[in-house]
Amino acid sequence: MAASVTGAAPAPAASPTPLDRVIPAPASAAPGGSPYRITRGTQIRVDGSRETRGVGEYLARVLRPSTGYRLPVTAQGAGGIRLRLANGPFGSEGYRLDSGRHGVTITAARPAGLFHGVQTLRQLLPAAVESDSVQPGPWLVAGGTITDTPRYGWRGAMLDVSRHFFTVDQVKRYIDQLALYKINKLHLHLSDDQGWRIAIDSWPRLATHGGSTEVGGGPGGYYTKADYKEIVRYAASRYLEVVPEIDMPGHTNAALASYAELNCDGVAPPLYTGTEVGFSSLCVGKEITYDFVDDVIRELAALTPGRYLHIGGDEAHSTSHEDYVTFMDRVQPIIAKYGKTVVGWHQLTGATPAKGALAQYWGLDGTSAEEKERVAEAARNGTGVILSPADRVYLDMKYTKETPLGLSWAGYVEVKRSYDWDPGAYLPGVPGGAVRGVEAPMWSETLENSGHIEYMAFPRLPGVAELGWSPAASHDWERYKVRLAAQAERWDALGIEWYRSPQVPWGAGGR
């Protein structure tokens, strides 16, 4: 299944990687002058801020194993690699990278910009820099200047830990892979019919009973509050904001099985390990339902420093439209009460989205004009839109009918299809300013380990990241596929499993 070569070290680059070879494509890249060479005497210079030093230490941890150099992080000295915060036209995530014979300087207004600049620097170095053992080098960075700011503020990836449970370490591994491509939101799908994955003190059986299985009947699992805090901390260290999702009123069998009183008939259903959807619903008419929601949101919001909380809202087929509207009218103010902004799947627009809410569109190219217009009308009335069209960026869709993992209900999604569309013009009638960005969901009905996640994410994920970051004018499949091919050596060095799409000219890097 995997196309990577276990244990094969990438050959050193004969010349520096061109400034415009990175993914996502920079807003501006101006080559010029001599390259900088990282040597045994190179230092990583930082200013006095804790955040800048943190980014410098992160960079040192990336570079030390493969170079074998000490690379001290210091506020003293001259030359080397310099990370500096300064006012400029960078926004909260942009940066400028200047490279020449005497050093590399990354300048940003905020620490997130420095971190994104470091990801660009990684890609400008030979792929062997990602190795965990000493490599021969040389470690050259092409001369010139990159000036870069993102197109959208929401560049997300969703991981479904409910259908199959993934450990804290597995989630951290995915976070590191997302960070390399400047993804800044990690949406965790924490509850579904097959499993409840977060400890809630006031309703303990949600985790201990509702989290005790998964698709296929495996042991499941759940995150303690300490586990979840560690995921949030680790994501923040990579400048990703965690967006937790508790799906409701449907996709709730794990909760219904844990507490009989959440069911209209007062009878708890059995735990569910299949993959059908749309059969479960919280009891909209019972007051205890809203006590339950309030408790869950209160505890989850207290653990989540980010601004958003996702309430799902999709495929509530066993909830009447009237009940769905009633439920959303009751639940959305609870999110606001605990200081968070509502995110929901785009079916939320069938009710009345709260002021400032975001709707995540997961329909298809062929979704009805009526459904698309409902989303567009909400967008015109102030609801922000996150674009996750299933037949473009659902990373769990099979590439072809031969793909051993994944599903195909939205069709087959090869690499070109996942890249070759414009988020700003995708939904008719949605004002450009209403589009907050893009997100690539990874549902896990068929995925059981990190290798499975990686095989479905790579090579599609970098393209989604580029759609979210790079200027629309830079999107060009013919040029992109060449840059994508050059990433293969890096994935091999990182030990990433990936799919060798015949649409990409992998060449020597795609063994």
Contiguous uncertain segments of 5+ residues:
2-8
Amino-to-carboxy terminus distance: 13 Å
Morphology: globular
Strand portion: 15-25%
Summarize the main sheet: 8 strands, parallel
The helix tally amounts to: 15
Q: Output mean pLDDT.
A: 96
Could you give the count of β-strands?
19
What is the helix content?
25-40%
Rg, rounded, reads 23 Å
Q: Can you list the strand order of the major beta sheet? A: 14-11-10-19-18-17-16-15
Seen as an oligomer or otherwise, the chain set is single chain
The helix-and-strand class reads alpha/beta
Q: What layout of secondary structure does this protein have?
A:
Layout: E1 28-31, E2 36-38, E3 44-46, H1 50-67, E4 73-74, E5 80-85, E6 95-100, E7 103-108, H2 111-124, E8 139-141, E9 144-148, E10 154-160, H3 168-180, E11 185-189, E12 191-192, E13 195-196, H4 205-208, H5 225-237, E14 241-245, H6 253-258, H7 287-303, E15 308-310, H8 321-337, E16 341-345, E17 358-361, H9 369-380, E18 384-387, H10 390-393, H11 415-419, E19 435-442, H12 450-457, H13 460-469, H14 477-485, H15 488-494
Parallel strand pairs: 3-4, 3-5, 5-7, 10-11, 10-19, 11-14, 15-16, 16-17, 17-18, 18-19
Antiparallel strand pairs: 1-9, 2-8, 6-7, 6-9, 12-13
Helix pairs in contact: 1-2, 3-5, 7-8
Describe the fold and architecture.
This protein has 511 residues and is of the alpha/beta class. Helix content is 31%, strand content 16%. It has helices at residues 50-67, 111-124, 168-180, 205-208, 225-237, 253-258, 287-303, 321-337, 369-380, 390-393, 415-419, 450-457, 460-469, 477-485, 488-494; strands spanning 28-31, 36-38, 44-46, 73-74, 80-85, 95-100, 103-108, 139-141, 144-148, 154-160, 185-189, 191-192, 195-196, 241-245, 308-310, 341-345, 358-361, 384-387, 435-442. The strands form four sheets. The chain has an eight-stranded parallel sheet with strand order 14-11-10-19-18-17-16-15. α1 runs parallel beside α2. The model is unreliable at 2-8 (pLDDT under 50).
